[in-house]
Amino acid sequence: MHSFQAGEVVCLKSGGPDMTIESVQAGADAAIVTCVWFVDKTLYRTTLPVSALTSAMWPIAA
Fold first, then answer.
1. 17-26 — which CB contacts under 8 Å span 24+ positions?
2. In what order do the strands lie in the sheet with 53-55?
3. pTM of the entire predicted model
């Protein structure tokens, strides 16, 4: 299983927008991450289990 860190770009395994991990919390059974993303100018935030996420494989310009 991937060990995600704050600042990584991820997406749901089932699809959807790219999201940035805001924080990672260790849970009793599995890690939980808080993700943020924008749609137009609205910021969204949700908490998801690590098992629902995959890395978004695209390079970020420095």
1. 18/56, 18/58, 19/56
2. 42-49, 32-39, 19-25, 9-12, 53-55
3. 0.83
Residues forming beta bridges with residue 36, ordered by sequence position: 20, 45
DSSP annotation of 50 reads G
- Judge contact between 21 and 35, C-beta under 8 A: yes
User: What per-residue string of b and e applies to 8-22 under the rule 16 or more CB within 10 Å gives b?
Assistant: bebbeeeeeeebebe
Classify the C-alpha dihedral 56-27-5-39 as positive or negative: positive
CA distance 46 to 11: 12
* Per-residue pLDDT tens digits for 5-62: 999 999 999 999 999 999 999 877 888 999 999 999 999 999 999 999 999 976 666 5
